[in-house]
Hints:
five-stranded antiparallel beta sheet, 8 strands, 14% helix, 41% strand
Amino acid sequence: MVRTFTLGALGLGLVVAPIGANAADMSYLVRARVPVHCVVQQQAPGVADANGASVSLGQFREYCNAPSGYELIVRYSPGTLQGTVLTSGSDTVVLNGSGEAVLSRASGPRMIERNIMAAPGENGFDTDRLELLLVPRQ
């Protein structure tokens, strides 16, 4: 009961205050802080091409609200996947076996769905670890 009365009195004070003042001089400043949130999710499983030259790793959705943009990073087991070519839309990267590569960069926030394809290198797909993650730019 006390909470109801306190909130009611506060609400009445906010409603009454603007009435007594000149409406042209009134303004309110509202600020909100939205935390940076970046996530990439696989939407559909991948399948091999009929000729075996490339593999669809499926469709994924990337979402990041970082004002300064982000990078789409590919992580895999170091020493593997050398020469493998990953393609997603107009973005392409050739993996060098380091264990990490940048597939794409965005200059601002965005949400997009796209497919990712992989053409194996000389050693084929010699790992079962391939991870996509979004890293906000500072």
